[in-house]
Amino acid sequence: MINQVLYVWLRQVQGLLETSLTLISENKDIFIVILGVGIVPLTVRLFWWMLQQRRQRQILPDTFPFDVIKPQSKVLPAILGGDTNDPLADYKIPYQERISGRSIHDELKQKLDESRWVLILAPTGIGKTREAANLAQRLNTEGWTILHLKRGEWLDALPRFPEDKIGTDRKLLFFLDDLNSKIYGGRIEQSPKADEPLQRLNVPLQERLIRAIEFYEKSCRKEDIRVIATARNEKEREFTDEPSEWEKLEFDKYPALWKRFAIYELTEPEESAIISVLREAVSQAKIEANPDDYACLAQRNDHTFRNIVENLRSAKNNRQSLTRDTFRDTLKGTWEKRYQEVVKKYPIAPYIYDAVELLEMVGISLYPFTVKPTALLIADGNLLQRLQHWRKIRHAWNYLISKEHILEPREGQIEAKGRRVESIQYISPLSSLVLQLATKHSKKMLVSSLIFGFNAIKLGYSKEGIISINKTLETTQKLCKSNFGKEYVLENLEGYAYLGKGYALHKLGNLKEAITNYDKGLELKPNNYEAWSNRGSALRDLGHNKEAIISHDKAIQIKSNYYQAWHNRGIALLNLRLLEEAIVSFDKAIQIKPDFHEAWNNRGVVLLNLRLLEEAIVSFDKAIQIKPDFHEAWNNRGDALLNLRRLDESLACFDKALELKPDSWEALNNRGTVLLKLKNLDKALTCFNKAIQIQPNLHQAWNNRSIVLRKLGQFKEAITSCNKALEIQPTYYEASYNKGIALAMSGYLKQAIISFDKATQIKQDFHDNWYIRGLAFYDLGRLEEAITSFEEATKIKPNNADNFYSKACCYALQNKIDLAVESLKQAIKLNPEEYREIAKTDSAFDNLRGDNQFQALIQGDIN
């Protein structure tokens, strides 16, 4: 009776639910509003608050970057992973000697004993990790502790030996698997949205790895440290916009790391080894197969163990026999086929694959609680659509975990979808999600939130990055107040968090706050040379160049071959006009990194300032040779050629700079200057106008524009341009000088003299200003004041014929014949061809026509 009543009641509830769903579906827009602003959110929030009240804050786990495998442990399951119920889990696949009559295992052991650091190289699927793991198992049974590097953890040198993590054992074997993806997996290229990038704060793994292991070598006996690493060595690119697996390792860029390794290139397995795997794994997984087919399958196989295992897994998942018809000859295309099968079965799957790719790109660890909400974020939609997406994601999840192992993606598995996620469009919404996850799952999200913050900053989302980093700081500081005290891992994370926040604030232009955070971080990480150098850059941007040099010197003191610090030090010295010292710094940076194009360019800028123009061009050419699309170097090369009056070559350089960067206001202004010298006034004016349109506060372009307008006879507009230049930069003496010329040519001589006087106050040794000022007084008939100006001009340029000739004219008009003749004599001596002829007809010398000395001078009888 009770069961019947319960059944009737359940049927009524079912009918009610179906009616409700129909009602919601037909009136979804109304319900979206109601759900958005009505009682449901209040109920949900109340329920959530009650759960939060019951939830106790858990102590964060240690964020140690290694899985510690103590001696006498089961190493293969710990390293290779896999479900214990999966007969095809990697650690359960029987080990096979790949070459008959040869023990790869013993060869690797001998090489490790001899070199201590061994790097196993091979293409994907050959069995690198298996060989390395078996060797690790052997050492583990001999008393070695294995430190297996996890992905996504921040690795660096520690302030003290982590005895509480490792124990008292000092025989340590570092296991570094799949270095290609660990090195490259979390990188994001600089977005065009980002400002000019500062030095990187999330240091490449190559640098962190060597200094971390060197820390352990100093803490233990050097001979008690061993390193086994694996990496792919394919040299062909899978994607044209990404480096090959070999290029990802950057052997040439980090010789200090790679020279430590003895290289062991793993050979392909023989067919007999493949047959042995088939025989044992088929039996172990209880898959139907004909043993007579094994030799044929091994012959058809692509020489990898991985392809065999994936064929076996496909047969088991699809409940098929392993036959010649179902066997796929190569691993290539396997992931694509499996991806298509998954999508056919679960159309929501692409969002989950995209979520895995996105999270790996931005450095967030893969957990169900990170992947599922990220997939929902990517799927997007209105409230009802999101509810449907969430239900479908949950429905597909178990299959993707158990069959596709989506949280531990294999090489090529995620790439099989054939397209890339555009990470930039998700950074902002992902930032909010990371904040929520870091609150709810603080102990697992601590490092992820920090790395995400760094990557957000690199993409130009500094505000989002700061929010994520602040969450890391908040969590670490709460733990530091607990009974456990401030542990070394937390000190590292807190230090990096402050440094990352300083980096973000620096990019946002909050320089003082940036320096404050750099200082807090350096209290915890005093030997972080990158941070000392970044701090120096912030000080330089504040105009504190002397303090910046001290900061860069600190970086160099910690790491003498840190080329970025030498380079940044050179820029600060250049700003202080300490040009010879700047050259030394740039040369040092180039000595350490010969292909450092920025250093070659800035070295050229110093030489340009020293007027060593040919040498400057050599430096710019070197920068362009290294980076042909380096528009700044093309622009600077053009500037050097302009100073050498090689105008056509100069113009070609500015054209190239503008081809590479059409909105380069520097190149536009410089191109206009060349065209002005070539008397192509209309095109010059167009260049200056474009430069001003891009950079309205470019006072040089306003001044140059005034020169063109003056030459076009548009004096009023020329004066307006000079006024704009002076409004932007009141101490810009060239603008006062050009304004004076435009006023003089307009007939406003007295106002012109006021402008010349202002230019003189700013720059006392400006020859042309003194000379033109003298001409203005001359035209006003104020000859004594004109002579005074010409005398000042002569002090600056003693061998300038114009000064002497103009003084001669003044003296002649004053009837001071001897002084006039003497001055004219000096002018003709300096420029005989021009001034002897001019003096013959110049009315200023009418009073001297009867003077014998004057006649002898203009006739050439005396010199």
Plain-language structure description:
A six-stranded mixed sheet has the order 1-3-4-5-2-6, with helices on both faces. It contains 43 helices and six strands. The protein has 863 residues and is mainly α. Helix 20 (442-458) packs antiparallel against helix 21. Helices cover 64% and strands 3% of the residues. The chain starts with a helix and ends with a helix. The model is unreliable at 1-62 and 186-200 (pLDDT under 50).
Detail the topology: elements first, then pairings.
Blueprint: H1 2-26, H2 28-37, H3 39-54, E1 66-69, H4 75-80, H5 104-115, E2 117-121, H6 128-141, E3 145-149, H7 163-166, E4 172-176, H8 179-184, H9 205-219, E5 225-231, H10 245-249, H11 255-258, E6 262-265, H12 271-285, H13 294-300, H14 305-317, H15 334-345, H16 349-362, H17 368-379, H18 383-402, H19 427-440, H20 442-458, H21 462-480, H22 488-508, H23 511-524, H24 529-541, H25 545-558, H26 563-575, H27 579-592, H28 597-609, H29 613-626, H30 631-643, H31 647-660, H32 665-677, H33 681-694, H34 699-711, H35 715-728, H36 733-745, H37 749-762, H38 767-779, H39 783-796, H40 801-813, H41 817-830, H42 832-841, H43 852-859
Parallel strand pairs: 2-5, 2-6, 3-4, 4-5
Antiparallel strand pairs: 1-3
